[in-house]
Amino acid sequence: MEQPVSETYAKRLMRVSAYIHDHLDQDLSLDVLADIACLSPYHWHRIYHGYFGETVAATVRRLRLQRAAADLAHTEKSIPEIATRAGYDSQASFTRAFSAAFGLPPAKYREVGSHSVFKDSTPQDIQAMYDVAITHVPATDLIAVDHRGSYMGIGKSFDLLFTTLASRNLIKPNLRMIGVYFDDPTSVPESELKSQAGVAVTDMDAVDTPLLTTHIQGGDYAVLKYKGPYGDMRVAYDWLFGQWLPASGREAADAPVFEDYLNSPRDTPPTELRTDIYLPLK
Q1: What would the pLDDT profile of 89-135 be if each residue is shown by its tens digit?
Q2: What pLDDT score does 111 carry?
Q3: Burial 170-195 (b: 16+ CB within 10 A, else e)
Q4: Handedness of CA 220, 226, 229, 231 (dihedral sign)
Q5: Are strands 212-216 and 257-261 parallel, antiparallel or unpaired?
Q6: Which end of the chain has fewer CB atoms surrounding its CB within 10 Å, N or C?
Q7: How far is CA 242 from CA 229, 237, 248, in A?
Q8: pTM of the model
Q9: In Å, how far from its chain's centre is CA 177?
Q10: Mind spelling out the 3-state secondary structure of 208-254?
Q11: Is the peptide bond before 256 cis (omega within 30 degrees of 0)?
């Protein structure tokens, strides 16, 4: 049976999206990606922009700068090394691009970015800075796709999820974007990390591969309201588990954490991204 045109384009879109995520250190010119999509550069670019709401160049730039921010926050790599890895010929051009995206030049971001508040502040300072509340969450159904590997790379699976939903006419208004994270990234090798990119639904539609149906366990959750780049979120988790939880008098339940993404990195500056982090409690 011949596949619907929308399904054919969805597969081409996902082939390119996956290639971008997996080859950030390689040539990602329009000509290269057009070959991956098996379309002319002119038509491919317009189709991609129409589906994802940003140009190919914007996607590549966003993902490389997001990775650069994580390198600045969590590694000792030099700024020239990070700039080269992000695809910039000079540190000056990298500094201009990074400053435009994150509101601070790279060296200043490494020193005083949102990740830094956890390094030199007391638990009381951070408690006042971050809103953590305990709330009851009802069991919630999800349509999702599995993700393996770095949690920072789950955007590739969200692309697969939304492209597949769109090709099957399953997109509904105001879908909640939910990331479910099953493993501790400090104890499980990055290549073996398991997570799911999902959307919350009120009535489960029958789906098939690559989509799956799953659910979030109901119960009490500690909710940390986080604002800032995804690459800085690791230190928020360290504080939530290492300081807030022991002081709270509660115990973590045997269920995965999940994140509720309140806006999108495609149209929101990294410093304005809002994420609710849900820690299940006994």
Answers
A1: 999 999 999 999 998 999 999 887 766 555 555 555 555 556 799 99
A2: 85
A3: beeeebebbbbbeeeeeeeeeeebeb
A4: negative
A5: unpaired
A6: N
A7: 21, 8, 11
A8: 0.83
A9: 10
A10: CCCCEEEEECCEEEEEEEEECCHHHHHHHHHHHHHHHHHHHCCCECC
A11: no
